[in-house]
Amino acid sequence: MSKANQTSEIEQTPAFETSLKELEEIVTRLESGKLPLESALNEFERGIQLARQGQKTLQQAEQRVQILLNHDAQSPLDEFSPDAE
């Protein structure tokens, strides 16, 4: 995949947080039970797409973390402290 294609794909893919928020809204609408069947099916389909996209994003993030951790297996990890700068 070329750099231009990657950029285009990134621009077309909503941010993880945006997708998660949309997915939560879809679940709320579906749980309300007030949608007509066709609308509910469309919402469900969109929800499945968002869930798969989110799962893919999380898997990629996990792979990046594993690569970073495996880069130098001999170096010890330091305790994380949000106050440390």
Q: How do the helices and strands line up, and which of them pair or pack?
A:
Elements lengths: L2 H10 L3 H17 L4 H35 L14
Helix pairs in contact: 2-3
Task: Walk me through what this model shows.
Belongs to the XseB family. The chain has 85 residues and is an all-alpha fold. Helix content is 73%, strand content 0%. The chain has a domain at 13-68: Helix Hairpins (Orthogonal Bundle), CATH 1.10.287. The chain has helices spanning 3-12, 16-32, 37-71. The longest helix has 35 residues, at 37-71. Helix 2 runs antiparallel to helix 3. The chain is built from 3 helices and no strands.
Number of helices: 3
Instruction: Please tell me how large the radius of gyration is.
Output: 19 Å
N/C terminus separation: 37 Å
Poorly predicted ranges (pLDDT <50, ≥5 residues)? Answer: 5-10
What is the H-and-E element order?
Answer: HHH
The largest pleated sheet is described as: none
Strand-residue fraction? under 5%
Question: Any idea of the CATH topology of one domain?
Answer: Helix Hairpins
Question: Which secondary-structure class do the elements indicate?
Answer: mainly alpha
Q: Judging from the principal axes of the Cα atoms, what is the shape?
A: elongated
Helix share, percent: over 70%
Number of strands: 0
What's the CATH architecture of one domain?
A: Orthogonal Bundle
Oligomer: single chain
The CATH class of one domain is: Mainly Alpha
Q: Calculate the mean pLDDT score and round it.
A: 81
CATH superfamily annotation of one domain: Exonuclease VII, small subunit
